[in-house]
Design goal:
The protein is an alpha/beta fold and 410 residues long. 36% of the residues lie in helices and 14% in strands. It has 17 helices and 15 strands. A 7-stranded parallel beta sheet has the order 5-4-1-6-7-8-9, with helices on both faces. A 6-stranded parallel beta sheet has the order 12-11-10-13-14-15, sandwiched between helices. Strands 2-3 form a two-stranded antiparallel ribbon.
Length: 410
């Protein structure tokens, strides 16, 4: 029955006929472009590859909602790939003996039938990576953001066999991370953030256009625009971040920020949910809380800020406020300064030094979450010249050539 579904047959054909297989999670596809879910990192790269006639096959993580026609490159559910590999067991008599009982090896058979030479994505599962490598594909993991090379970030790779050959990152990795990558024989390649590159060099539908169509609650002319990047992990919602619980009393927006919002009716505050908060049903109460909060204030907005491309929103802001979001790097890329308030960033904290490079360049200030400090910073902050990264190994066209070369040389 699985094989008789025409949609599956078309999917198998795409999988077998593509040059590159892409992979990412729903949370990475938080944008909607032409009515399809779109990843501002993986799919930005795929757009450029498609423009030079490279065929793309997409995979979605297990349990994804944005599969088939709902996602850019029509991603196939990975669950389907696993089921398909399991179905090979019925043809055991045709398989070499070493492949008869190993599920990862059966996945390798599927990969070896495909013309694809590269598996490229964010958060590629070890079983997929191992199977792809066994079939002779080059596996290239892309950092999910700038913070992926900070020393406290746990690398998602288990061992040499399931690790990618290349790790595309947007900033030079911390020395501890470099050592971990070297131990796994992974080559880190510093590339431009695809999203930032497209914003600066391409034509994207601007959030400003959408904002003009939005219903205005007031005709007040605001003196400033401040973006607040909210984060998950502060609402006792993840064992990974248990140490952050209690820092924000309501788990969503710090009470000292609320005080400043209410004292500055002349400032427009845009409150942006993290993509995890936006996409995961566990955070419905965060959306309801924000909806109620904004409804009672004329100087706040959250939906446009949360659902639009980060760069479209921050580009029209005077300043950026967050606990410790790595989006400070994207803000700096368009010349917007950030104030970070998480105690973990203070001297002696577990994340001290996370933004040292941006602090030295004047794009980040780490401060205490006190209303007077916030008010002073907000009243004084002004846009700066856009940050230029000095650490790239490849520019964007060179990155596309790098991928093409790996297609040819594998």
């Amino acid at each position: 029955m699985l094989i008789l579904d025409f949609r599956y047959l078309r999917a198998i054909r795409r999988f077998l006929d593509c040059d590159i297989i892409s992979y990412c999670h729903d949370v990475d596809r938080y944008l909607v472009v032409n009515d399809k879910r779109f990843s501002p990192i993986v799919d930005e790269i795929l757009v450029n590859l498609k423009s030079i006639d490279i065929k793309i096959g997409g995979l979605a993580s297990p349990g994804s909602k944005f599969v088939w026609e709902r996602g850019f490159s029509n991603p196939i559910p990975t669950n389907f790939l696993f089921r398909l590999s399991n179905s090979l067991r019925y043809f055991n008599f045709l398989l070499p003996s070493k492949l008869k009982s190993n599920n990862a090896s059966l996945l390798s058979v599927l990969f070896s039938f495909s013309k694809a030479r590269i598996l490229l994505g964010i958060g590629i599962p070890p079983s997929l990576s191992r199977a792809a490598r066994s079939a002779g594909l080059t596996v290239i993991e892309i950092a999910h953001g700038y913070g992926a090379c900070n020393p406290e970030f746990r690398l998602p790779f288990e061992d040499k066999k399931s690790a990618p050959q290349f790790y595309l990152v947007f900033e030079e990795a911390h020395e501890k991370v470099k050592k971990r990558l070297a131990d796994l024989e992974i080559e880190a390649v510093i590339v431009p953030n695809p999203s930032v590159y497209r914003f600066k060099n391409g034509c994207r539908q601007s959030a400003k256009g959408k904002q003009a169509k939005a219903t205005r609650k007031t005709e007040v002319e605001f003196s400033k625009n401040i973006l607040v990047s909210l984060q998950w992990g502060y609402d006792n919602d993840s064992p990974l971040y248990y140490q952050l619980s209690g820092i924000i009393k309501n788990g969503i927006l710090h009470e000292e920020i609320i005080k400043v919002i209410d004292k500055t009716p002349n400032i427009h505050w845009q409150l942006r949910l993290h993509p995890v908060q936006l996409m995961d049903n566990r955070y419905e109460h965060h959306k309801l809380w924000l909806e109620d909060f904004v409804k009672r204030r004329l100087n706040c907005e959250w939906e446009l800020a949360s659902k639009s491309h980060f760069l479209d929103i921050v580009n029209s802001c005077d300043g950026h406020l967050t606990m410790q979001s790595s989006s400070c790097y994207e803000a700096a890329a368009v010349g917007v300064r950030s104030l970070c308030l998480c105690p973990a960033l203070q001297k002696g904290g577990r994340n001290f030094g996370r933004f040292a490079r941006l602090e030295n360049e004047g794009f980040v200030v780490v401060g205490e979450a006190k209303s007077k400090i916030l008010e002073t910073w907000v009243s004084n902050v002004k846009p700066a010249n856009a940050r230029i990264s000095q650490t790239q190994h490849l520019n964007f066209p060179q990155m596309i050539e790098f991928l093409k070369e790996n297609l040819i040389n594998v």
